[in-house]
Amino acid sequence: MAEEDISHAVLDRYRAGDRDFRGINLRGCFYAGVDLSNIDLSGANLAFANLSNANLIGAILDKADLSGTDVQGANLIGVSLVGARLIATRMSHAKMLATNLSLTNMSSGNLSGSSMVFSQFTDAKLMGVDASHTNFGGADMSRVDFRSANLRMAGFLHTNLEDANFSKANLEEANFRGALNLTPKQIKAGINWQKAYYDPEFRELLQI
Questions:
Q1: pLDDT tens digits for 81-91?
Q2: What's the gap between Cα 113 and its chain centre?
Q3: Interval 8-34 mean pLDDT
Q4: Which of 132, 174, 127 shows the shortest CA–CA distance to 150?
Q5: Which spans in the chain are helix H?
Q6: pLDDT tens across 49-92, in order?
Q7: Model pTM?
Q8: Which residues, in sequence order, are CB contacts of 198 under 8 Å at separation 6+?
Q9: Long-range contact list for 35-44, CB < 8 A, 24+ apart?
Q10: Residue 45: strand, helix, or coil
Q11: Half-sphere exposure of 169 (CA within 13 A, CB side)
């Protein structure tokens, strides 16, 4: 069945009330701007699909493959993406609140300008991501791997950064005021850390 036919068939089932699409192959399908709230796409193949500006509130995407997928501007509030594959996924300006991204691989993705407040990122891989201007306020980012990420002007207010790895990450103008469980050793592993913003007490620990 052609991609377009599959896309229409899924939408017809969804509109009829079906929400269970676990393990389905939707590689390269087009769902830009579509309402798919509360859909279950656990283990689905959505690689290189277009979900830009889609409404995915409350969706389940655990262990789904969204590599190379366009999710720019999508509403991902309350979505579960535990263990999902998000390599080189375009997520700029996506809206996330209480989204679960634990154990995801988001390497080389684009998160720039996204709001990810109060989301769960425990043990996620964000190596080489562009997370400039991204708001991570209140998120749990314990043990996140930020190696070589671009975190320029990212916000970490009340973010749990316990054991997060900032090695070679660009921290220029990142806002670490109010960040939780952060150490000078973590910060100094990054680059341009002297140009980031910190609480006065933490600046003393950094000796700047």
A1: 999 999 999 99
A2: 11
A3: 96
A4: 132
A5: 3-15, 184-188, 200-206
A6: 999 999 999 999 999 999 999 999 999 999 999 999 999 999 99
A7: 0.92
A8: 176, 177, 187, 206
A9: 39/14
A10: strand
A11: 32
> Rounded CA gap, 4 and 49, in Å?
11
- Compute the distance between CA of residue 63 and CA of residue 66 in angstroms, rounded to an integer: 9
User: From the CB of residue 194, how many other CB atoms can be counted at a distance below 10 Å?
Assistant: 11
Render the burial of 54-90: b for 16+ CB within 10 Å, e for the rest: bbbbbbbbbbbbbbbbbbbbbbbbbbbbbbbbbbbbb
Q: How confident is the model at residue 8 (pLDDT cuts 50, 70, 90)?
A: confident
Please give the pLDDT value at position 7: 83
Residue 165 tokens read as: 């790895």
Residue 45 and residue 139: Cα distance in Å, rounded? 27
Cβ neighbours of 121 (radius 10 Å):
27
Token look-up 């998120």 returns 139
| Residue 160 · residue 141 · CB < 8 Å | yes
Instruction: State how far the Cα of 128 lies from the Cα of 50, in Å rounded to an integer.
Output: 22
d(CA 39, CA 18): 8
CA-CA-CA-CA torsion sign (198, 199, 204, 208): positive
Q: Residue 96 is inside which H or E element, if any? A: strand 95-97
Tokens standing for residue 64: 């789904």
